[in-house]
Amino acid sequence: MAKRFVYADNAATTPLSKVAFEAMKPWLTEKWGNPSSIYGIARDARKAIEAARTDIAAAIGASPREIFFTSGGTESDNWAIKSAARAFQKKGRHLITSSVEHHAVSETMESLVSDGYEVTYLPVDKYGLVDPAALEKAIRPDTILVSVMTANNEIGTIQPIKELGAVARKHGVVFHTDAVQAVGHIPIDVAEMNVDMLSLSSHKFRGPQGVGVLYVKKGIRIPPLMHGGGHESGLRSGTENVAGICGMAAALKHAVETMPETSARLTRLRDKLTEKILQIPYTQLTGHPVNRLPGTVSVVINFIEGESIVLMLDREGICASSGSACTSGSLDPSHVLLAIGLPHEVAHGSLRLSLGEDTTEEDVDYIAEKLPPIVEKLRAMSPVWKG
Fold first, then answer.
1. How far apart are CA 385 and CA 158, in angstroms?
2. 100 with 336: CB under 8 angstroms?
3. Known catalytic residue at 326
4. SS3 for 44?
5. In whole angstroms, what is the distance from residue 92 CA to residue 103 CA?
6. pLDDT of 249-291, one tens digit each?
7. pLDDT in tens, 222-251
8. In the 8-state DSSP scheme, what is residue 130?
9. Which of the following is catalytic: 326, 380, 381, 384?
């Protein structure tokens, strides 16, 4: 099979969709007005933002007034956690999260320790799942916030958010979820899921990079993370990214409308690719075998380094990852894989292939053809394999 280009790192970022691009174009070239001004093109920009707010709210079962635009998932996570910590510090300074969170959550939690906050990290099972009973046991009278991601960015495991949210709500504790990997890929309903705050990022569902949302349930009062001109109802200052917001809304609306078909197709391709990869000796699936994101294939291949696999795949035109794109420069093994019980030497052999809307059957066949000889070649050079 001739060399081709296969993009299999959609969990890192997705290509901008034509739907999103078309929605953005007028606000990049024709109607560039500041939405806070009062003349015609500015009023048009404001109307476009509010229409986008309505569409995004509908996509996650929220009200438009509960949607606040940000620069992306990292800002949304920081805002939710730091502002909730400030808002409820009179009640207590105890925070709870999981041991498999994205660094946007775990590092933000850790940053608060020096200010007198205490963080409890919930353990996960071998699939990366948090037990609601463990959350129940961890909650204390001074607990003010729980943050557990909806779906893991490395292994794809989907958490029991509805049950976890119910535990937090029973104890009167605010519940936040980083849903960056989940929104646009699995059904999301913030009311049904018992969620008080939710973070999402446009570029994970074929919207533009650099724009996101924090959902804040009506009645949850948190202070702003950024101060200035009082944009976003005074909670997030800064001139709105009109083109980005419109592209994000269009991409999310399309993703939700096509989700049943896309999800079914990606699940089939995911399972086909997983089956073929697991035929390689000493290879194992990471994450839950069924309760996982439709397009995420996550494995560990023993006796070789994941980074070497990614580089060799790149030579064959295949874009893949050895874990989270945000920490790909680190030499340390994934904290997620360590949390699910893998030893260091095994965790170093991680490989994530995340399929997307453009992935074809031929792409999957190409990956399945090229990966085994790469593994064989790398193992032939490995002193661990020879030993």
1. 33
2. yes
3. yes
4. helix
5. 24
6. 999 999 999 999 999 999 999 999 999 999 999 999 999 999 9
7. 999 888 888 988 889 898 999 999 999 999
8. P
9. 326
